Every structure is written in C-alpha cells, then in structure tokens.
Amino acid sequence: MSENHNHTPFVTAGIVLGLGLGGFVDGIVLHQILQWHHMLTSAGFPPTSVGNLEVNTLADGLFHATTWVSTVIGLALLWRAKRQGEQPPVKILVGPIAVGWGLFNLVEGIIDHHILGIHHVRSGPDQLLWDLAFLAFGAILVVIGWMVARGGQRKKATE
Q1: Distance (Å, rounded) from C-alpha 1 to C-alpha 3?
Q2: Phi and psi dihedrals of 86, rounded to 5?
Q3: Cα–Cα distance between 39 and 116 in angstroms, integer?
Q4: What is the value of pTM for the model shown?
Q5: What does each C-alpha distance from 82 to 76, 102, 117, 133 come to in angstroms?
Q6: Which of 28, 35, 132, 158 has minimal CB crowding within 10 Å?
Q7: Among candidates 91, 90, 134, 129, which has minimal Cα distance to 112?
Q8: What's the first-to-final CA gap in the chain, in angstroms?
Q9: Rounded to the nearest 10 degrees, what angle do helices 91-108 and 3-25 cross at?
Q10: d(CA 23, CA 34)
Q11: Dihedral through CA 28, CA 31, CA 34, CA 35, nearest 10?
Q12: Closest listed residue to residue 31, CA positions, set 56, 67, 65
C-alpha cells in the first residue's frame, strides 16, 4: 500500500476539520467580534432593527451549527484514522486543515458574497476589495496547506 493511500484518512479528516474551523473563525471574528456582517445583512435584513437582528441571529446560529457539525465530523474522521495505528507527520494533518479553511473561504466567498450577495465581508464603498481579499486569503491557505501536506508526504516517503 502506498504512503499516499495510507495518509488519505488523515488528509480527509484535516480538510473537513479545516472547513469547520474556517467557518468558526469567520463567524466568531467577522460576525460577532468585529460585527462587520451577519449571514443576511445584504439580503434585505440590515442590522437596523431588532427584527432584522433576530433574523440574522437565527441565520448566524444555523451557520454556526453547520460549522460545528463539520468540526465534529472532522474530529470523528481523525479519531477513526488514528485508531488504524498510523502516526503520520504533523504536516499531513496541518496542511489539509489549512486547505479546508481555504476551501471554506473560497466556497463561502464565491457563493454568499458574489453569487447570492447575501452579505459581504465588510459592506460599504470598498466591499468588493474586502470580498476579493477574503477570496485571496482562502486561495493562499489552499496553496500553503497543499505545499505543507506535500512536504510531509515526501518526508514520510523518504524515511
């Protein structure tokens, strides 16, 4: 069995875990701490009334529940992979987590910010710049994560 095949469960677990963690960072930092947007702020529910905040709070809660489920699934996949007895290099998990986070940014950014337009990273005169920076950050995470994971696979293969 090849080394790449042996690492597949860890790579899958890392990507799913990264998707969930990326969503948590987005929700906690952008929605709650900075309060730049909620899930539906550009979809007819600006945070200008209690009713609109209630709708956005519900949507944010559903979003967080989804990211929580992704995180739990990622942890379960990691636990299952670890039970198989293999101990891959840390890079084999850390790289895919970064890939998953980056994929979260790319998918969420393209769908919610650009296609559906239900919210933007930061609404206002520079919202396109903020949205593009969010996508660029996601792309950078995917590339760096992939490079880290590939480096870990090469190291394990030469040992």
Answers
A1: 7
A2: -80, 145
A3: 11
A4: 0.89
A5: 10, 24, 40, 36
A6: 158
A7: 134
A8: 16
A9: 50
A10: 15
A11: -150
A12: 56
Residues 52-68 as b/e (b if ≥16 CB within 10 A, e otherwise) read: bbebbeebbeebbeebe
Q: Is 123 helix (H, G, I), strand (E, B) or coil?
A: coil
Letter string b/e over residues 111-120, b meaning 16 or more CB atoms within 10 A of that residue's CB:
ebbeeeebbb
Q: How far apart are CA 121 and CA 124, in angstroms?
A: 10
Give the model confidence (pLDDT) of 75-133 as tens digits.
999 999 999 877 888 899 999 999 999 999 999 999 999 999 999 999 999 999 999 99
DSSP string, 54-66: HHHHHHHHHHHHH
State the Cα–Cα distance between residues 61 and 112, nearest whole angstrom: 16
- Return d(Cα 78, Cα 16) in angstroms, integer: 10
Q: Cβ of 69: how many Cβ atoms within 10 Å?
A: 13
Token couple for 34 = 């900075």
Alpha helix ranges (H) inside the chain: 3-25, 50-83, 91-108, 127-158
Tokens of 62: 């559903």
Q: Are residues 40 and 49 in contact, defined by beta-carbon separation less than 8 angstroms? A: no
The two tokens of residue 93 are 């998990």
